[in-house]
User: Fold these one by one.
Assistant:
Number 1:
Amino acid sequence: MNFKRKLLLAPVFLLFSTLSFSQKVVLNETPDGVDFSINGQTVLTYQKSKVPVPEGIKEAFSKSGFIHPLTSPSGQVLTRIQPKDHYHHYGIWGPWTRATIDGREVDFWNLGDGKGRVDFSHVISKKQAGGAAELNVRQNHYDLKAPESQKIAIEEDLRIKVKPADKGRYMVDYTSTISTKNPGGILLDDYRYGGGLGFRATEVWGSDNSVILTSEGKDRKNADSSEAKWVIITGETNAPEGTSGLLILSHNTNKAHPEPLRVWPEENYDRKGNVFVEFTPIRHESWEILPNKKYSLKYRMIVFDGTMSAEEAEAYWRAFVK
């Protein structure tokens, strides 16, 4: 039986877990980032300082304002940053790719172009209560070609909340609220990449040892450009169960919900290290951001060891939107 079939037929219960539902999440801020820990184990880090790039790589690719590492309950690292094929990929993040500002095209995603970027600005608040922990930060989207007084094109307030879940899993709420002071507003142009929530998976995963499943029953072969309420990404790890993964949920109040996906297809990205999934609300239609008005996108991630069934994913989604 091949690996993918094993994953699809695997039982939905977990044999082992290092985290329990009764445990509390603890926040620890350092000069470089903010760690979320459960039972003394760091499960997620939000990066405040720019991560240096490898020698010989353009400094513009150095970036802050993203999640990495994100680990499974047993400590398996599920994210990746600065892969050699895409140095601008950073774990879990969501910059807009094509935007029109005052008639000029601005790209906040492809850092090497030098047109735009997104970086951490400051911590707004931190909170620990009820077993959960929450971080609110400001991220600035810079229009690098604009006059100095207009360089901050978009202000983003990002809320990250972590709490234990059932079956030894844990959940991450990721809420992005954006606004602009630009008098003419901003048009987030329709494109296959941009905004939402992007996930660059561990270099261990490829088409031979990972599985993607959407709420509409699509897999990596046909999920790209489709619309979904949720997507599960599962792959081989050193967890006791042999696999780990995460479920990403899109809230039904999000722009263009059920939300379009960008999923790297196997025919172009079949080797290990090339699993990328993103909810992309502007994939099929542009989005006008009016001045001094706030727009929010809400996502939830359930991080697990072992496997997750479609029925479980649907139940998590219903609880999220309710």
Number 2:
Amino acid sequence: MMWKEKYKIGVEHIDKQHEELFRRVSEFTKVIRSEEDWDARVDKVKETMIFMKDYVIDHFNEEEIYQEQINYPDIETHREAHAKFREGINNYVKIFEEEGFTEEKIQEFGGKLMAWLIMHVGNMDQKIGEYVRSKGGKV
């Protein structure tokens, strides 16, 4: 899962954050699909969950503040998508705490992260860039 230039929305600090998200999720998926020992894989899951809980909150907050500043018309839909993702992360935290780490749940979590990141950055966030460009890049 690689960052692609086509994912850029044209807002430098958001694009850098997106690149970091892609890098981290890519690193994560490599480890969980590898033949590394179980403890190393579980450690990577824990590390990724901590990162996602913290970084995504910061990123979402910054992205939403930016949308407010530019009067982005679809901000509420975007906020809802962010809230669902945060809820999803928290659900996996709870699952792992209550049920432990299983191969099935680790792979499921990895798949959800990849799918969400591609769909959100590659589709929903692109609309922010389109809006900015429709305003001449100066909003």
Number 3:
Amino acid sequence: MTALQRFYQWVIDSPPLLEIKPPVSNLNVFLSDYVIDSAHTYHGNPRLGFLYQHLCRQVVEASANYSIKYEEIQINVAGRTLGAIDFILEDSSSQKLEHWEVAIKFYLLHEQTWFGPNSHDQLDKKLARMLGHQLEMSSSAAFIEQYPEIDVDSKHLLMQGRLYTNPFLEQNVPTECLGYDINSSQVNGFWCYQSQAHLITEALYPLTKEQWAAGTDDFSSQPITEFGDRFVHGQTKSGQFWFVMPQSWPHG
């Protein structure tokens, strides 16, 4: 199985970071028996979020009841870009249009806050922006003026990924974020500082960005022994995911 096929299967199989409560949604309405071919390639923007959106598109396009009406709609105000809408989907059974925003995120728990490896990114801030800005764009005056033919019936947020705790620190794991319950099944990764890395009992193998979610079963590369001055994301042969962070994180 290729890395892309593994990633696609993970997108289908993995619950979202937050328990379902509108507008927080999952992919269940789209699921089919379709799997991407081993020859499937991706040549778009190499950032993980764009690859994830590409795979979400494959899931929707394989669905019997949904089609993509618009993707990456730009909304402009006075020559300034207000933002872009990920997907406007049509439910063929009702002809109703749905606004979907999709995101894949990886957050590490530090002092009761979920930080991204880039600590400017935080789960609470990201969720607030998705709910208060991204999903609101399809009912904004600018959108209605620019796209009067698009009448959105419902809004949906899909946020998948993984949450990481540090087993070498005393941590109380939050159970909710902004009133949405955290899906405990997705708190299944670990992180530590470089000074704690010797406490990891298994060899750690490097992951490419497209392997971050689903991991790898190819351990032919050399294990990680040097961490340098930035974070490292790796996996053990037993399937544990680890971030090893610089001592200055999340403040450096």
Number 4:
Amino acid sequence: MENLRDKTVGAFVTEDFRTAAVFSKYKIDFCCKGHKTINEVCLKQGIETRVLLKKINEVVLAEDTNVIDFNSWPLDLLADYIEKTHHRYVLDKSVIIIQFLNKLCNVHGGRHPELFTINELFNAGVVELSQHMKKEEIILFPFIKNMVKAKERDEAVPQPAFGSVENPIAMMTHEHEIEGERFREISNLTNNYTAPSDGCTTYKVTFAMLKEFEENLHTHIHLENNILFPKAIALEKEFS
């Protein structure tokens, strides 16, 4: 048990993604703050370590043949999956959510002025995420895929303009932290995505979509911060 207390949150989720639900329940950030140990997050959140580890253990021991082991995937496949699943999700869902938020501001903004702040935060996040994803798709992901091909063919990897892969990864990780903080603020402003008593159906649907968007973003960031990026750094070191 003692060793598990020093294990990082990201390591638990990397080994078994089902544990993400446990961390989410306790409002523990497993993506941007995935480098924190169980001891550290329990201390910060005021949770008994043994209780959290018990919940994690229950999930890990439960049989589920549908669990996807992203940690075993080749890096080029994982990069493609992130782009085609999570990047597309952001682009597709953000358009609808922005429309709904604009409607809520027009109809309910007088009684709920926090909607304007939520709308501004979400719109700013979408702009930043769009630029962030483009950098990954044009610069970082192609280099990772080239490294995979080079290793398969036992070839050298051309030196990229950005130097070490650690440089763009550091930038992407920093931007992940910014988005994580932005959505924590949105979560607080929405009372953890709970519509007010006078909220209409559109209100409830919009908040439900915002919650799903944040959950998808957490998975997106986890796959990069805790699996793709560390393995890309390790792969680059094999060439040197």
